[in-house]
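In the previous chapter we treated chains in isolation. Here, by contrast, the input contains two separate entities that must be folded as one system, with a combined length of 562 residues.
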Amino acid sequence: MTRIWSRKGQVRRQSAYLPPTPQTNRRLPGFPRQGPKPGRTASSAITVDGLIKRYSEPASQAEFIVLSDISLTIGEGEFASIVGPSGCGKSTLLNIIAGIESYEGGVVAIHPNAVVGGAGPNIGYVFQTPRLLDWLTVEKNIHFVLEAQNVPRSRWPELVATNLAMVGLAGQERNYPRNLSGGMQQRVAIARALAIEPDILLMDEPFSHLDAITARKLRFDLVDVLQRAGPTILFVTHDLAEAVFLSDKIYMMSTKPARIFKRVRIDIPRPRQPEDEHIVELEKTLMREFFSVVEAKD
Amino acid sequence: MPPRQFLPRHVVALRVSSILVLLLLWWMASEAMRDTQILPGPVAIGRTIIADLRTPGPYGESPYFDIGITLARIFIAFTTSMLLGTAIGLAMGLNWLCERSLLAIIPLTLTTPTILMVFLVIMWFGYSEIGGLVAVIAVVTPYVAVNIFEGTKAMDKSLIDMATAFKAKRYQSLRKVYLPQLTPYLFSAFRYAFGLTWKIVALAETFGLKYGIGYMFFFWFQQFNIAQTLAWIIMFVALMLILEHAVFARLEDRVFAWRTAHAR
C-alpha cells in the first residue's frame, strides 16, 4: 500500500488504485532487512511530482513561491543529493518529504511501504544542527525516536550500541549532549537517525556546521555506514564537492524561482576518494555550470 | 584580578557569618536602647519563641495549630494558583484566541494592588476561610500564567519539528520536548508564586482570618507587645526560608542536573 501525502500534508491512501504490495515486501518497523532489498533498482523510494510550495507573509499579505514545479524520483537504496544556493528552498523540500511542512500543489509519494497498522515508511532525519534533547542522555535521545517508531523495547540496547559504535561514540551512552563537542553531537544525531533503521534517510547539510577535518572524517564514516545499512538517502548541501563524492545522483537547484535545472548521474565507482581525479574533474565541470546558472540569476 | 573561586563551603560560611553579623548588630542596638519594651535583644526573643511554642494561643489552641493552619493555607492556595496559572498560561501559549483575549485582561489583575484585593475579597466573602483563599489565588494566578505563557513562546521550534519528523507520539513530545523546555519558567513561577503566596496569606491572616501565624502577630500587635510580635514574625520568616531552601532549591538542583552533569 502506498501512502501519498497530498495537499496540506493530509494523508491520502491510494490502496484502491494500486495493486497490493506482496507480503514479502512488508517489514515491521524496527526489524532488520533480510538479505538484499527487493527491487533495489526497479522501484522508487521517493517520488515528487510538480511540487509547489507557497508562503504568504501574514503582515504584508505578500506571497512568495518557495518551490515551483519540483519533480524528482529517487530509487530505492540510491544516494541522491540536492545542491543549491542557500535560501533556494532545499530544506523546505526535505521538510515536506518528512511531513513537517505542508504544500500547495503536486504530489509527494513515499514508498515502500507501508506497514500493517498504517504507519508510514521509516524516515530518519539529520538536521543542520544536532537538535538533540539536551536534558536526556545520549542513550535516551536515541530511545526517544525508537519509542516514537514503536521499535520493541527488547531491541533498544542493541540498536543504541551498534549505532553509537558505528559513528565512533561507543561508551558515550550515559553522557549528556552538552558534554560533547559539536562534531560528536552531530554524530549522535546521525546515530539517532540510523537507529530506527530508516527506509529513507533525509540529511540537511549535516556537515556544514563542522570544521573541515571533522566533516571530512564524518563523510567517510557516512559512506561506510551506508554500505552496511543501505537506506535511500536524500542529501541536501551547498557543497558540490561533497555531493560529487557522496552521491549516485545530483539535482542542481537554482533560486528565484526555486527549480531544478539539472540532473547528473555520477557513475564513478566506489570506494571513492575526494581527491580522485575523476571526482575533481566532474566537480569542476559541474561547478562551472552551476555558477553560470546561479550567478546569472543575481 | 582573576575571579575568585568560591567553593560551596565558602558560600555557606559567608551566609552563616552574615546572619551572625546581623544578630550581633541587633544585639548591640538593643543594648544601646536599654529598653526591652521597644527593642528586645535576640536572646530575649529566642526565649519568647521557645516559651510561645509551649503556651496555648488566645483561643486555647496549640501554637503548632497556628503554624499548621498557616502552612495548610499556603499549600492550598499555592497549589491551586500554580495549577490554574499553568493551565491558563499553556492555553494562552497554544491557542491564538486565548492569547489575544487573556492578554488584555491579565494586566488589569496584575496592576490591582494586593492589599485592595484582600479588602475587596473580605467585603465579598466576609472573614472566612474561602475569602482568604480567593484573595491569594486571584493575586498569584495571573503571575504564574504570564510566566508559563512566556515559556511557551520561548520554546525551540526546531526540536518540535524534530519530534514531528520522527513521528513522536503526543505524550512523548509533551513529556520530553515541551515540558523540559518549560521547567525553567515553571520554577521561576514556582518561586515567585511561593513568595507572593506566603506574603498574602500573612496579610489575609492579619486582617481577616482566625488562627494562623499572621493572626498571632496581629493579636500581639493589638496589645502592642513588640517582643511577641517580633517572635512570631521571626518564626514565620524562618519557616519560609527553610521551605524555600530545603525543598525548592533541592528540587531545582535535581531537575537541572543535566546542565552541569559530567561523564561518569
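Chain A has seven helices and eleven strands. Helices of chain A lie at 90-98, 138-148, 156-166, 182-195, 212-229, 240-246, 277-297. Compare these points with the single-chain example from earlier in the chapter.
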